[in-house]
Design a protein that fits this description.
Strand content: 5-15%
Number of helices: 45
Shape: elongated
Helix content: 55-70%
Length: 995
């Protein structure tokens, strides 16, 4: 009988131990098979430490139930008393449903996990051969193979061996299995065995000693006659033995299968004979073999059959492998093969493909193999079939940076560990990351991620895949490779001519022009050219990572031409690791930042300073601008200096935005797009305010000296007042003045009008710096009203004539320049208008809705797609801002936190006050941030403002890259934009229109 409360406490303890179904676990613990250990706390703790406690407990019950009455107590006693067995057995049961099935069918095989001697911790080929020695038929071989696999899996999940050792042991077990299968086949056909010599050459991961739990075992068969016998008959006999060996391993029996033996890497593939003589192999490789076949032979290793014949084969093909890099179009051939592999992955699986997808295992393996083949002809230390061993050798030889090799190695180990644990679960050949939550949880826990296993797994996987993708492109596509591959041994520096044929593969649309740029930069014997030859391979890789490599390289040449003779420029790029990559990102992301940089190339120095990309405060900017204006000998010179500061700071802001959006090798991309938007909006708004303050000072000094006859203030409205300016925004303002004591009103008004006109003239003078347009159309009566009013005139107008839309426009009003006291009094004047007591009446709400509906129907440009227009389109900036502003006008009188000019701050305040559900606030915020980033991206890419996505493919691709979308995924970008803004519009219909 269960004591009251007992079940509840057991349930809680099971839940805390990691069981996802505590009720089922409690029933299993109450089973008769576990009667003697069900209350043992050690057992429950050990189950909780497994990757899947529910699976481990179920497997244990099945194993215990399968034991004889005499054997069951031995199992359970050993389980609770011997920690090595407990960890190994439960670890396997919690990670592999397939091995739990095997133990249930062969209940005595748990004894294979009991021994804990030194040789048991790290068995080699001889131990596995002994483990398979008693198997004389395919069924027995499968049982013995699973028993050996059980011991490898136990060491793997317990951490006794790392991922590389696990892969090596699996390759040793495969070798022993091939030998046992050949022994069984030979025993079944002794005449064939006597008539031929047969060597089995392992290829692929088996040949490289880095096999998976479940993988095709790639082989090549080499046959020959014995003792001068008939060669044709010997090849036929060897073919029968080879076919039988493949069936022994591959066919499904009552004990399942082992793994497929794949001989398709042989000469002519499936169309060629299964077995060839050594002479036939060599004739084929010398005359007909393709580049990929030599790449595959890099991992060839004789593993079974006649050892002398196998050794002769390896000795004969090895020189051919290491001469493959001298073949015409070698690098291009390998690149094409890599692209073909990626292109053949179903679109629905690319994001879950561990092996073949972008940033997957194949990326690492291809990059390492290509570097091996290029450099291995003159460095025998690179001759290894193991990816990780070869990677270490490449780093030791200086062919790969040590930091790059370490990052790539760590990522490869993690991805291989994921692959191992995915396959171990059901012993099925797959490279797809599961989608089911329970499978992901088990996978994450099996890798030691216990706090939030699914979230931690996805984060770690994406991080490592990103590292692989970035470094793979840097290594695999390096133009330096062609130079090394095509030139005579010893000549390993970058040759612009040899690099030319690589440019198209890197994504350059105009290889001829790109080659001319390379020649101009890197040819010659000067120190400058030598440094460029060092920089270019890496720079080209970064340019290739952008949507427009041609523009990146062209801009790099322009900057280098302008600064090449300065002593610090190339030294900065060579010695400051971040500077070169930052420059590459900035030069290839679009037109705006290169245009800003070309007007003052010395701003490159900002990219190498750790603090150089931090936005400056409004106070610091205004102080610098006013000082520059004060030093100038004319208004024009003063504002030119102010505009120069603005250009430099725009470059700083845009460069930081691009670098944080793209990420670098040392710093990942900013994960919070809202932070990027806020940083840009604040920096550009502060810079605009400082520039206007400088223009005001210059205009006043030019006509009146120190003091204007009237107090004068400039009020920022719209995005300017909201600290939300983008790169292409005009400065929306209101002008207010107040005559000084004793000054005639007409004289004061004329002075105010004059200073406004002078400011506009100075800020738009034709110079190399971008103009700053001041827009006062949001003033009372719009363009029909006076450009500037006194404070009293504003008060009279608002008291008598103010319309609802004008009060709404004042929500984002904030003083930005001029007389601070006058600006503050203007804000006091308008606060009752924009934050009306008791909120808006029904008539005012209807008027705002009517105006919004009219704007939607009349102001959207003809032919524009309403689903993609960032400002006026469905769920775009206007939708979100009008909704937030309506909430402010209705509730800010009673909710002080709503009294802000910033859209996101007001939205957050409305959510905190319970005026909008958190989920709907998040939807609106996401849409507003995305639309703002798209507008910023369009300006960065095209160099001119726009509210819609570009139609030109390269420009659209560049917008996508800025927003974090990989090459070739702009369709996803547009789909995501439509989906996010569609959801936002549904919220707007509810909150704004009351639908």
């Amino acid at each position: 009988m269960t004591v009251p409360g007992r079940r509840s406490s057991t349930f809680i303890r099971l839940l805390r131990s990691g069981f996802t179904d505590p009720s089922a676990a409690a029933r299993l613990l109450d089973s008769d098979a576990l009667a003697s250990v069900r209350t043992d706390p050690v057992l429950l703790d050990a189950l909780g430490a497994t990757a899947d406690p529910d699976l481990a407990l179920l497997g244990l019950v099945r194993l215990a139930e399968a034991q004889s009455d005499d054997e069951r107590p031995v199992l359970l006693d050993t389980l609770v008393s011997a920690k090595p067995l407990r960890d190994r057995l439960l670890g396997v049961l919690g990670a592999s449903e397939a091995l739990a099935d095997h133990l249930a069918r062969h209940p005595r095989d748990w004894h294979a996990l009991v021994t804990y001697e030194a040789v048991d911790l790290h068995p080699g080929l001889p131990e596995f051969e002994r483990g398979l020695a008693g198997a004389h038929d395919p069924v027995a071989l499968r049982v013995a193979y699973r028993r050996c696999l059980l011991s490898i899996a136990a060491r793997d999940v317990c951490g006794t061996i790392d991922v590389a050792q696990t892969a090596a042991e699996l390759a040793d077990l495969a070798t022993a299995t091939l030998r046992a299968a050949l022994r069984i086949a030979s025993a079944a056909a002794p005449e064939d065995a006597a008539a031929c010599r047969l060597a089995v050459i392992a290829m692929g991961k088996c040949g490289g000693n880095e096999l998976n739990y479940v993988s095709d075992v790639d082989v090549i068969f080499v046959g020959d006659a014995r003792n001068g016998g008939d060669e044709g008959q010997a090849v036929q006999a060897a073919s029968r033995l080879a076919s039988h060996l493949m069936r022994i391993c591959s066919e499904t029996t009552i004990e399942g299968t082992i793994w497929p033996v794949d001989a398709n890497l042989r000469p002519e593939g499936r169309n060629g004979p299964l077995v060839r003589t050594l002479a036939s192999h060599l004739a084929y490789y010398q005359r007909w073999a393709k580049t990929w076949e030599f790449q595959a032979l890099l991992k060839a290793r004789a593993v079974a059959g006649d050892p002398d014949l196998g050794a002769q084969y390896i000795d004969a093909i090895t020189p051919m492998v290491w001469q493959a890099a001298e073949r015409e179009n070698f690098v291009a051939d390998v690149q094409k093969m890599r692209r073909r592999v990626v292109d053949n992955i179903p679109a629905s699986q690319v994001d879950r493909e561990l092996k073949l997808g972008p940033g997957g295992l194949r990326d690492v393996e291809f990059a390492v193999q290509l570097l091996q083949l290029v450099h291995g002809r003159s460095d025998a230390g690179l001759h290894s079939g193991s990816t990780l061993v070869a990677l270490q050798a490449l780093a030791a030889g200086g062919y790969v940076g040590r930091a790059d090799a370490a990052q790539l190695g760590d990522a490869y180990r993690f991805l291989r560990a994921m692959e191992h644990r995915i396959q171990l679960y059901r012993l099925r050949r797959t490279h797809l990351v599961p989608e089911d939550e329970a499978d992901l949880r088990r996978l994450g826990r099996s890798l030691g991620l216990r706090t939030e296993p699914v979230a931690e797994l996805n984060k770690a996987w994406r991080r490592h895949a990103s590292v692989v993708r970035r470094l793979h492109e840097k290594l695999f596509y390096r133009p330096l490779l062609d130079a090394v591959a095509q030139l005579a041994p010893g000549e390993t520096r970058l040759s612009p001519r040899a690099a030319g044929q690589r440019l198209e593969a890197l994504g350059y649309a105009d290889p001829a022009s790109a080659l001319r740029h390379l020649e101009a930069l890197a040819s010659g014997v000067t120190r400058k050219a030598a440094i460029q030859r060092t920089l270019l391979p890496v720079m080209l890789g970064w340019f290739a990572d952008s949507a427009d490599p041609d523009a990146g390289l062209l801009n790099f040449r322009k900057v280098s031409d302008a600064l090449g003779k300065t002593p610090w420029y190339l030294r900065l790029l060579r010695d400051e690791g971040a500077a070169a990559e930052n420059l590459a990102r900035v030069l290839s992301a679009g037109r705006l930042t290169p245009d800003l940089l070309m007007r003052a190339p010395e701003a490159v120095a900002l990219l190498g300073d750790p603090e150089g990309l931090q936005p400056r405060t409004h106070e610091a900017l205004e102080q610098e601008v006013l000082a520059a204006v004060g030093r100038a000998d004319s208004a024009e010179a003063g504002v030119a200096a102010a505009r120069g500061v603005r250009r430099r700071e725009l470059f700083r802001t845009a460069a930081a935005d691009i670098i944080r959006s793209y990420g670098t090798e040392d710093s990942p991309a900013e994960e919070d797009p809202g932070a990027l938007v806020d940083r840009v909006g604040g920096a550009v708004s502060d810079l605009t305010a400082a520039t206007i303050a400088g223009a005001l000072r210059a205009a006043v000094s030019n006509h009146w000296g120190e003091t204007l006859p009237t107090r004068f203030a400039i009020i920022g409205v719209g995005r300017f007042g909201g600290h939300e300016l983008g790169y292409g925004s005009d400065a929306d303002v209101l002008f207010v003045h107040e005559p000084r004591d004793g000054v005639d009103e007409q004289e004061a008004a004329k002075a105010a009008q004059t200073v406004i006109a002078e400011m506009r003239r100075l800020l738009q003078l034709p110079t190399a710096d971008p103009p700053l347009l001041i827009d006062a159309d949001l003033r009372p009566e719009g363009r029909s009203g006076p450009l500037v009013r006194t404070l009293a005139s504003y008060a009279a107008y608002y008291r008598r004539w103010s319309l609802t839309w004008e009060s709404q426009a004042l929500l984002r009003a904030e003083p930005v320049a001029g007389d601070a006291d006058l600006g503050a009094r203007f804000i006091e004047l308008i606060d009752p208008l924009r934050y009306p007591a008791e909120g808006l009446g029904e008539d005012a709400v209807r008027e705002i809705r009517r105006l919004k509906a009219r704007m939607e129907s009349e102001r959207l440009p003809r032919g524009a797609d309403p689903t993609l227009h960032t400002k006026l389109g469905r769920g775009g900036l206007s939708d979100v801002e009008w909704t937030v502003q309506l909430i402010q006008m209705q509730h800010a009188w009673s909710e002080p936190a709503l009294r802000t000019t910033r859209t996101r701050e007001a939205l957050a305040a409305a959510r905190a006050a319970g005026l909008i559900p958190a989920e709907e606030a998040q939807i609106l915020d996401e849409a507003w941030v995305l639309a703002t980033r798209v507008r910023n991206a369009v300006m960065l890419v095209r160099g001119r403002a726009g509210d819609t996505f570009p139609s030109e493919a390269r420009e659209l691709g560049a917008v996508g890259r800025y927003l974090g979308y990989a090459e070739g995924t702009v369709g996803e970008l547009l789909d995501d934009y439509r989906r996010i803004t569609r959801r936002a519009r549904a919220v707007v219909d509810d909150l704004f229109y009351g639908a």
